[in-house]
Design brief:
By secondary structure, this protein is an alpha/beta fold. Helix content is 48%, strand content 25%. The chain contains 14 helices and 11 strands. The strands form 2 sheets. It has a 6-stranded mixed sheet with strand order 8-7-6-9-11-10. The N terminus is likely disordered.
Length: 297
């Protein structure tokens, strides 16, 4: 009986090492006869800002490398505390670009015994798609610090995905070239070609926060593009410190939220979307889903 219970209940951890922050998500999943019940046990975000080093210097600096190692030690202790059944650790854009990513990975492996997997932008887009399903034609847009992942989903089926080096940290550091923007516009137009009634699904901490600031509630939020434009104009017009106070934002959120809004507004303009569906999910949720399906499918 206990063995059967263990098969039906899993405690899983996903660690997403992004260009702006490292995030840990721990969920308990229970498989019933008809569905999978999910409960979030822990979500922790550490603003390491790895992209601040990588997108300007081409490598993760010594200080941020030490911060990441300390963060991974904390994450390791938390996974032991929650007695998890399995975990995944994925690193994205900053690690893809960093010249010293392999040495950082070896250092963390030596210090914590944790294995970090650097995934491609296309793989990142596919995993994010796994975190949310809805009917209709959807362009799933995940804006990170170093890249934006784009996925075309038609009635729950992933048709195409890509990753472009357009991100909030890159915008802040002014490292995005005209060729990067051309690629971004090209990929969006390519994905939407021949697709009718296309809707945008936004993911990432910034769009989640923007939706809440706009007064949208519920699991499946809809953010009106006109409200997003208004928020962007207000936020961009005031200094960082004032933005932190007026909108109750941490410094690590207050600086990147403006370029994130800018990127989503550009996507909405290109697709002629009037609203953005914001289901409050992301890469870590897709990683949890991937682990569960590996066990249960």
């Amino acid at each position: 009986m206990e063995a059967e219970k263990q098969k039906r209940i899993l405690t899983l951890a996903a660690i997403d090492i992004g260009s702006n922050a490292a995030r840990m998500l721990i969920k308990r999943l229970e498989r019933t006869d008809n569905s999978i019940l999910s409960k979030k046990l822990l979500f922790l975000r550490i603003p390491l800002r790895l992209g601040m080093d990588v997108f300007q210097e081409g490598r993760i600096g010594k200080d941020r490398g030490k911060m990441l190692t300390r963060t991974m030690k904390v994450f390791s202790e938390l996974m032991a505390l929650y007695d998890i059944d399995d975990h995944l650790i994925y690193a994205t854009s900053a690690f893809r670009d960093a010249k010293n990513s392999n040495s950082i990975i070896r250092q963390i492996k030596k210090s914590t015994k944790l294995d970090i997997c650097v995934i491609s932008g296309e793989e990142e887009a596919r995993i994010i798609h796994d975190s949310f399903h809805a009917e209709g034609n959807l362009l799933h847009v995940d804006v990170g610090g170093g890249s934006t992942e784009l996925s075309l989903v038609c009635n729950g089926t992933l048709k195409d995905s890509c990753s472009v080096n357009i991100g909030t940290i890159r915008l802040l550091k002014k490292t995005i070239t005209s060729e990067d923007w051309k690629e971004f516009f090209f990929q969006i137009r390519r994905l939407m070609h021949g697709v009718d009634n296309l809707r945008i699904v936004g993911s990432g901490g910034n769009i989640n926060k923007l939706a809440r600031l706009a007064g949208n509630d519920g699991e499946k939020q809809q953010l009106k593009v006109e409200k997003l434009k208004s928020l962007y104009t207000q936020m961009a017009s005031i200094p960082l410190k004032q933005r932190m106070v007026e909108y109750d934002l941490s410094e690590s959120r207050a600086d990147v939220i403006v370029p994130a809004a800018q990127i989503f507004i550009i996507v909405a303009h290109l697709t002629k979307a009037s609203d953005i569906l914001v289901p409050n999910v992301g890469l870590a949720d897709g990683m949890i889903s991937r682990m569960a399906h590996t066990v249960w499918d």
